[in-house]
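Suppose a colleague, Dr. K., hands you the sequence of a protein chain of 395 amino acids and asks what its three-dimensional shape might be. Before reaching for any lab equipment, you can write down a predicted structure in token form. Begin with the sequence itself:
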Amino acid sequence: MNRLLQSKKRGSAIPLAVVAVLILLAMGTGLLSMGLHSRTISLRMTSDIAARCAADAGLTKALFEMNEKLQVKPWNGSSLPLETEISLPYCDEVYSYSVTSDSGIYTIQSTGTSAQSQRTVSCTLQLQGPFEAAIFTEGFINLHNSAEVDWYNYDADDANMKVGTNSTADGSVRLANSAIINGDVAVGVGGDPDTAIDLGNSAIIEGQTTALSEEVELPPVTVPDWLQWLPSFGTINNDTTINHSSKYSSIDLGNSETVIINGDITLYITGDITLGNSAELQIEPDASLTLYLGGDFEGKNSSTVNNETEDPGSLQIYGLDSCETIIFKNSSDLYGAIYAPDADIIMNNSANVYGAVVAKTFDMKNSGTFMYDASLRDASVNEELVRFEIKRWHE
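The predicted structure, expressed as tokens, is then:
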């Protein structure tokens, strides 16, 4: 009897075992399906990410090619960068890009491909020149008593005027008693505006004080090849009228002597420019001067750079890395834009400046007025040191 009961108990476990096997089989199949589905999603996401990275690489390459084209003057917009099925190194992804122009607005469209995935990104470009700020330096900015920085020629929707430095040192921007900046001030990346900006009694910054999010690159000046290889006409040391682009070793004017710029002139001065007492560099009303300066500039007492156009864009001074000081010792108005990232620029008492300055350091003495011409932001493709930057991006 006991044996019979034992036999029945053993036989009754078989259906239970079958049920357990079926449950495990169903669970295993579900887990296998889930794993396969997750792997498929993962592969698709990986391909999407890789395709997006390839598209971004194409956009970056197109931007680089556009900026390389800017180095060739005059600008030629008839042939814009275009590439198809370019392989990325060490992987299977490819990208294609094209640059198009519509009424002077340039657009990049880039498509990346990875396996069966494709992603497309596009952006519009804007030109940016070296004079985005009223004053920008690598080192200190020093505004003495009652000095003022303001601006003009701006539209209602323009971004606020900016003054800035890459420096984070204490007192990098100093405003002495009653000095005023009618705009924003930015110090170097990671700097503390509270310590990097030193305000004297009654000194005012009307806008915001911030730290830069990234360092501003100040590329060196390169003299155009056609100008660099011209023969030098030596030194100008007496009254002279210049009516064609030329190269000189220096300008050394004695007291009350004058150099007249007649026409749209580009000059390369390999050495120094010295204007003696009451000497004058005169730009006629329908003329312009682009000056590449290899040495230093000193305008002595009562000397003047007389830009009769009163347009800062018609006088642009570019200091090479060998240009270390630019000094104006006069009380007359100066209309011009100066880019000299290795030079200390000094504006002596009561000098009124209309334009923009990029320098190593900037020192404006008592009662000086600096008026930033906001139209200098409107760069053109044939200007010096301009570059394309991304304005709007979308996917």
